[in-house]
Amino acid sequence: MKKFGPGLLVAAAFIGPGTVATASKAGAGFGFALLWALLFSVFATIVLQEMAARLGLVTGKGLAEAVRASFHRPELKSLSIFLIIAAIGLGNAAYQTGNIAGAALGINSAIDVSNQLAAGIIALLAFALLASGHYKLIEKALISLVVLMSIVFLLTLFWVGPDWLGILKGLFTPSIPDGSVLIVIALIGTTVVPYNLFLHASSVSQAFKESGESDIDQALSHSRWDTGLSIGFGGLITLAIIATSATAFFGQSESFQASQLAQQLEPLLGPAAKYCFALGMLAAGLTSAITAPLAAAFAVCGAMGWSTDFKNRRFQFIWFAVLLSGAGFAIAGTKPLAAIIFAQAANGLLLPLIAVFLLLAMNQERLLGNYKNGLLANCLGGFVVILVSCLGLYKLYSLF
Questions:
Q1: How many helices (H) and strands (E) does the chain have?
Q2: Which residue of 115, 141, 245, 400 lies most exposed, with the fewest beta carbons within 10 A?
Q3: Residues 85/196/241/225 CA torsion (nearest 10 deg)
Q4: Whole-angstrom Cα distance, residue 318 to residue 368?
């Protein structure tokens, strides 16, 4: 199996419009103060995605199928099925709104068209690619464009010369400034994307089968390198976006607007910034607009025990429903930045539920044998669940 594959797809999926918008909002509103949340998010993503990949390699199953197989009592199995459908099916519908709105934002930054028209074009393009079944033909091209935009953000970071000591302080000194809890949860939700756990398990399993390899230990080693380096690179990109936004916008009296996103690249690219940003956001949004409905279909069909074949009518209905709901809210005129932040925060609130299901599956000896979680993996996974749950409960408490 190639060393770099599914992990890079996961990284490209979370470096989408949500990451750009949320990270920009975090930097513009709170400077470097929330970088610790990004560091935690990268750590949590590597821990959980390694488990998902190990599950897919060893069992040959997706996460939803493994969770279904983990429960024997009918009432517990029914509850797990309901919760997976609610969390991933409905959660991805919200996430899809942000994907389409973000891709439309990319179009709007270069061409003067309405948000509704741009969102409709993105939705139709995503539908055409999914319906044709040939979306993988352009997957590498889309990922390449996302990586290109990411590299530009990195170069811009060094070009603008941020306060490096301030960055280090933000990374290793946790703080929650007034009004930042929702952004903290959104930062976690845009990095530790719940549907990526389903996507990673299925894609790693498929890649292993197609490779013809039989040495699981070697495949696990490759997968861990793939996961760690790919997600680490994604975290570095997010750090660059936060830092450039903080350098450009933090401390200004005016509130940060979606129209200002491309301005972060102007110190390096000048007038060409909006076109580079538009291309990158379009690619990032379209990549996520394809993967999110697919992941929802894999999760729901796996939980229900239905076929996950791409040509199966139930599978097609689910991805179409997720795509349609996301397109509907985006075309209805939902503010792009607000929709994206809301979707990432919803992901952050759903994460503990999906992480608990993953931990339950990873402790099933009859599924994983000697490859089940050890004490260290369970402690790390439990730490992630507890911290994210506490943040979510704190946010809910603050509303009352």
A1: 18, 0
A2: 400
A3: 160
A4: 29
CA distances from 291 to 15, 155, 281 (A): 13, 28, 15
Q: For residue 184, give both structure tokens.
A: 């903290």
Q: Is 56 helix (H, G, I), strand (E, B) or coil?
A: helix
Q: For the purposes of burial, counting CB atoms within 10 Å of the CB of 210, is it exposed (0-12), middle (13-18) or buried (19 or more)?
A: exposed
Q: Considering only CA atoms, give the Rg of the chain.
A: 20
Tell me the three state secondary structure of residue 174: coil
**Residue of 360, 358, 363 lying closest to 374 (CA atoms):** 363
Tallying the residues shown for the chain, one arrives at 400
Residue ranges of alpha helices (H) inside 212-335 are 216-249, 266-269, 273-304, 313-331
Contact 81, 68 (CB under 8 A): yes
CA distance 305 to 315: 11
Distance CA(45)–CA(384), nearest Å, equals 9
What pTM was computed for the model? 0.81
Q: What tens digit of pLDDT does each residue of 254-308 get?
A: 566 655 666 777 776 677 777 777 777 777 777 778 878 888 888 888 878 888 7
Give the span between the Cα atoms of 123 and 104, in whole angstroms.
10
Nearest to 194 by CA among 372, 383, 25, 344: 344
Residue that has been written with the tokens 């891709």 in this structure: 103
In contact, 283 and 149? CB cutoff 8 Å: yes
Query: Which amino acid would we find at residue 157?
Result: L
The structure tokens 């990032």 sit at 284
Nearest by Cα to 103 from 321, 263, 277: 277
Structural domains of the chain sorted by starting position, each given as residue range(s) with its CATH number in brackets? 6-398 (1.20.1740.10)
d(CA 368, CA 383): 22
Of the candidates 242, 262, 300, the residue with the CA atom closest to the CA atom of residue 93: 300
3-state SS string for 325-368? HHHHHHHCCCCHHHHHHHHHHHHHHHHHHHHHHHHHHHCCHHHH
pLDDT tens, 360-389?
888 888 888 888 988 998 999 889 888 888
